[in-house]
Amino acid sequence: MWGIIATWRMAVEGITEADKMLKEGADAGDAIETAIKEVEDFPFYKSVGYGGLPNEEMEVELDAAYMDGDTLDIGAVAAIKDYANPISIARRLSHEKVNCMLVGDGAEKFAHKEGFERKNMLTDRAKIHYKNRVKEVKQQEISPYSGHDTVGMVCLDTHGKMTAATSTSGLFMKRKGRVGDSPISGSGFYVDSKIGGASATGLGEDLMKGCISYEIVRLMKEGKHPQEACEIAVNDLNKELIERRGKAGDLSLIAMNNKGEWGVATNIEGFSFAVATEGQEPIVYLTKNVDGKCIHEVASQEWLDNYMKTRTAPLEEK
């Protein structure tokens, strides 16, 4: 049995490559890194990697993390600039006994010493997005922070090894140095090959309040199916945040156990995810929360076509 599941439609090309690798017996670490890099390298996905949305100072600061479910090794980078594939740097850091999470200048110095590719991650397209948002904030009372779609994945290989990984440019127009849940173990991701793994996307500040990826793995350890575990964790945190704070930010979680069974839960409309397993070709689903239960529907070809058309459409400065 093998499988890989990921947040958002933008991951389907990456998990398609990973699925081919897993069929041939590839390591879960190699497969998930390949899949994440596909997303990082595509300039039209504006919340991850190259072409990612900049912070308030128009700099692209990236966060990424990698976890090995066999050894529980973790590597992470945060607020790193000008490196092409932060996921690869995070995976390299997972081999370090100490200093396995590095931020800002420290992460960049490590990446330079290890020979990772330097690259200006701020594209002309991202600059236009930035300049348009500055005008929108002034004219329409719109939040500068809308737009924060982390790619998160969980992978199982034919040897029973599991991995989890994340990569993101974080909140659009975030403060310099801001770090969300994505590179934080237990919040943005967690995996244990004896049980399963989970990964999150949404508002990091709220996802961190529930250590929600670890909570899903804990629920799976108790015997819950990944779908039930995701629904319990998302619904409980959503309810708790509303009771205590009056509202809850976006919370969307994906999970897979060590049998290749998967689950997804969200508190928003229009959350998409992609999954591939031994018995299921790569496919994109849309999910919605109806009275605490999440219903998954296969994305229509019309929806898929419109998704790419919207993201690759020419941009003009307003």
From TrEMBL:
Pfam families: Asparaginase_2 (PF01112). The active site is at T150 (nucleophile). Substrate binds at R178, V179, G180, D181, T201, G202, L203, G204. GO terms for cellular component: cytoplasm. GO terms for molecular function: hydrolase activity, acting on carbon-nitrogen (but not peptide) bonds, in linear amides. InterPro entries: Ntn_hydrolases_N, Peptidase_T2. It comes from the Bacteria. The record marks D149, T150 as: Cleavage. This is Asparaginase. It comes from Peptacetobacter hiranonis (strain DSM 13275 / JCM 10541 / KCTC 15199 / TO-931).
